[in-house]
Amino acid sequence: MALLLKTGSDRGPWWRAEFAKALPDLEFRQFPEVGDANDIEFALVWKPDPGFLRTLPRLKVIFSLGAGVDHIFEDPHLPAGVPIVRLVDEQLTRQMTEYAVLHALRFHRQAALYEALQREKAWRELPQKMTGERRVGVMGVGEIGGAVARALKSLGFDVAGWARGPRALDGIPVFAGAGRLVEFLGRSDIAVCVLPPTPETADILDKRAFAAMPSGGFVVNIGRGRQLVETDLIAALDSGHLAGAALDVFRQEPLPPASPLWSHPKVVVTPHVAAITDPRSALAQVVENIRRVRRGEAPTNVVDLKRGY
Ligand SMILES: NC(=O)c1ccc[n+]([C@@H]2O[C@H](COP(=O)([O-])OP(=O)(O)OC[C@H]3O[C@@H](n4cnc5c(N)ncnc54)[C@H](OP(=O)(O)O)[C@@H]3O)[C@@H](O)[C@H]2O)c1
Q1: Measuring CA to CA, which of 9, 128, 262, 308 is 20 to 30 A from 253?
Q2: C-alpha 114 – ligand 1 centre gap (Å)
Q3: Distance 46 CA to ligand 1 centre (A)
Q4: Spatial distance between the Cα atoms of 63 and 290, rounded to a whole number of angstroms
Q5: Residues 164-175, mean pLDDT to the nearest whole number
Q6: Tens-digit pLDDT profile for residues 93-133
């Protein structure tokens, strides 16, 4: 019985040492040194090569090295019937929440304007809205978005969420379904996107979405790059309809040097670092799930293949 790791990082030796401590009877292999493919029962992967996972005939579980599983779904030849497990990580959720709160507060407290005034040595007071007057819309209120919405509400913002179906969220109103998106965006001075990438959420932040938002609105995208139509965002910013955006994810990563987003005065760019998987908490989840499978139980945090997240 063996686990195969395929990681984009240099943490292979760390994983090997930690698995040896936690599951000493589990053989550890690291891609591309697969050995006998019949031995591999668990794969822990980031961006597996298309078609590769199907070459493992005894594979029982595919573990994603991230909260998102789009990097696995990009493989059109996934093995049928093998559950895909995503990370649900408290540390990752906290980091995502920090990012959303940071940029919501920067916008709300007009940080960029005060920084510009400081450069001019200008002592000037700007009109300031109360937090309760600032409406925030969190697109996707699952593990991460739910925590983001609760944190923003605790600061006093007027928060609502948007999800596929109805859900209770500690007194935060949740608009459900595509039919309520325009209404939801119409009350989002700040729209925070924490959606998973699916065919339904692709290009969702487009010119129609921006037109639905109130004038002077702000966009935070920490979902996935393909959810944002970058040219539509730039047009909405340049027209003055939107006031700014904080973007952590992009259609092409790394963001090409020629992208106008890099130097746009109303855009904050970060290199997909809103949250970085903490391997220690990731390890604990994978180990626990392997133990469950060995006991004949189903793993937790299995991705719903029909929904795509
Ligand atoms: N930037 C980063 O560093 C980073 C790090 C980690 C994760 N992420 C991104 O964050 C995403 C969310 O992670 P999570 O753990 O919070 O996922 P999750 O628990 O599965 O929650 C997803 C949420 O999105 C909603 N949703 C999905 N499709 C929808 C649609 N078509 N219309 C409306 N709502 C829809 C779901 O609605 P229901 O509640 O009705 O199911 C749910 O509320 C990940 O998929 C990943 O792309 C980014």
Answers
A1: 308
A2: 33
A3: 18
A4: 10
A5: 97
A6: 999 999 999 999 999 999 999 999 999 999 999 999 999 99
Catalytic positions, please?
A: 224, 272
CA of residue 103 relative to chain centroid, distance:
15
Ligand 1 atom nearest the C-alpha of 167 is 39
Q: 90-108 and 279-294 are packed helices; what angle lies between their axes, rounded to 10 degrees?
A: 140
The CA 304 to ligand 1 mean position distance, Å, reads 12
**Whether the model pTM is above 0.85:** yes
Q: What does the buried/exposed string (b/e) look like for 205-224 if buried means 16 or more CB atoms within 10 Å of the residue's CB?
A: bbeebbebbeeebbbbbbbb
| Nearest ligand 1 atom, CA 144 | 16
SS3 category, 205: strand
**Ligand 1 contact, 146 CB (< 6 A):** no
- Counting atoms of ligand 1 from 1, which one is nearest the CA of 141? 43
Contact yes or no for 45/66 (Cβ under 8 A): no
What DSSP letter does each residue of 155-191 carry, written as one string?
A: TT-EEEEEESS----TT--EEESGGGHHHHHTT-SEE
| C-alpha dihedral (16, 22, 27, 30), degrees to nearest 10 | -30
